[in-house]
Write a structure and sequence with these properties.
binds S-adenosylmethionine, about 220 residues, alpha/beta, about 25% helix, single chain, globular
């Protein structure tokens, strides 16, 4: 199917089984995230490996959207960007993010449509949070809309989570299948190419699995 911008989407493809997206805590996410958590969610060495990947993959001076963001975006300190938009659930965390140029509080499980104009960003990053999305294909469809052609989507995954808020798939599938599942989200959204799985796990620290894709 054509999205209206001359690119292929996968509307009509067989959807993922709904029970992959059940959660132990089905209350609104706003309740769980109302308290600010000024913590890091992966080991320092894993954060350093993610920052190094961003150093290689992100366009200097570009426009970046950090989705499911908090008080920290793990961007290389020496790299400058024209825009770093951050979107997450807790205003206090986002206000404390010293890389952010603008911020939005939005529950992507209640409204997966991103509040940005088409073709706004060179890169959309999502660190250690993909396991909380109940309709990830809708979110990737929106990511495709806000990315410029050739822009990069980067999903960084590890093995920790808030268990009651992670969807069932991330509890029952082993790591390789979880990476494959995220690739499938992107394929189902359509309009991406060069989908890659990259293992940047540091020795003796939390793993780091990256899924990168380019807007076609
Ligand atoms: C484990 S933290 C990771 C935060 C940050 N990306 C990092 O690397 O430290 C999970 C983040 O996902 C965000 N999040 C969880 N559920 C969300 C939802 N439904 N909509 C938008 N953001 C959500 C929360 O605001 C929280 O900051």
């Amino acid at each position: 199917m054509d999205s209206g911008r001359g690119e292929k989407t996968n509307e009509g493809a067989v959807p993922l089984p709904a029970n992959l997206f059940d959660r132990a805590d089905e209350t609104p996410d706003a309740l769980f995230y109302r308290v600010a958590r000024m913590v890091t969610h992966i080991d320092a060495a894993t954060i350093a490996a993610l920052t190094e990947y961003y150093r290689e993959a992100l366009p200097p001076g570009g426009d970046v959207l950090d989705l499911m963001s908090s008080w920290v975006s793990h961007l290389p300190a020496e790299m400058e960007f024209r825009r770093v938009a951050v979107l997450g659930m807790n205003r206090q965390e986002l206000v404390a993010n010293d890389r952010a140029t603008d911020s939005v509080v939005q529950d992507l499980n209640a409204d997966p449509e991103l509040p940005y104009a088409p073709d706004s960003f060179d890169a959309v990053i999502n660190a250690v949070s993909i396991q909380y999305l109940v309709d990830p294909v809708a979110v990737f469809t929106s990511i495709r809309r806000v990315l410029r052609p050739g822009g990069i989507s980067i999903v960084a995954m590890s093995h920790r989570c808030f268990p009651t808020k992670a969807v069932r798939a991330f509890h029952v599938l082993p790591p390789q299948r979880r990476c494959d599942l995220v690739c499938r989200y992107i394929e189902l959204a359509g309009g991406f190419d060069r989908i890659e799985q990259i293992d940047r796990s540091p020795a003796g620290a939390d793993p780091l699995w990256i899924i990168a894709a380019r807007r076609a």
